[in-house]
């Protein structure tokens, strides 16, 4: 199980996969790099291993993986966090915002999942998980907002494709140890590990 950072993923994960060792990677954002994702896929095939990317703090990836088989045209996610949850993100070095002075909700970023993970590497791993499962990091649209009145992290997902439309809204309890992530993300990792060895697997 990898729970370090994207650099550790680049350095170690392909080699582990090639050696036949399956890896659960928590640094899902690293795989916004299409070259790294392709290298990991090739290594896993060669080593007959598996790379597991947990869903994280969102829902619906089982539906979307199935829908992607026949085509998704649009994938969007809005991530709404508290000022503490966004403070310190690299994006604000070039786009300064006084998060703690906001009087109401404010959209601080709009763009692709690929751009979002560069600006918010500790905040938008779910957007990359969503993009890898669907239309890719360059096409998946991400909006990041800050709400000073929020006590939870909110996710809004909307997709449209051949099989229909999906709209999901989630309100997640913030991790007591890390305001940048949700408690659900920890549960997702545990569920992924359990699913790996479960004799019965429910869901696609």
Overall, the morphology is globular
pLDDT averaged over residues: 96
DSSP summary: helix tally: 8
Within the largest sheet, what's the order of strands?
A: 4-5-3-6-7
Q: What is the CATH architecture descriptor of the largest domain?
A: 2-Layer Sandwich
CATH class descriptor of the largest domain: Alpha Beta
Instruction: Give a count of the beta strands, DSSP E runs of length 2 or more.
Output: 7
The share of residues in helices is: 25-40%
Q: How would you sum up the major sheet?
A: 5 strands, mixed
Structure overview:
The structure is a single chain. About 35% of the residues lie in helices and about 20% in strands. The protein has a five-stranded mixed β-sheet with strand order 4-5-3-6-7. The chain has a two-stranded parallel sheet with strand order 1-2. It has about 200 residues and is an alpha/beta fold. The protein is globular and about 55 Å long. It contains eight helices and seven strands; from the N terminus they run H-E-H-E-H-E-H-H-E-H-H-E-E-E-H. It starts with 5 loop residues before the first helix and ends in a 7-residue tail after the last helix. It folds into two domains: about 5-55, no CATH class; about 60-180, Dihydrodipicolinate Reductase, domain 2. The mean pLDDT is about 95. It has helices at about 5-20, 35-45, 60-70, 85, 90-95, 115-120, 125-135, 185-195; strands spanning about 25, 50, 70-80, 105-110, 140-145, 155-160, 165-170.
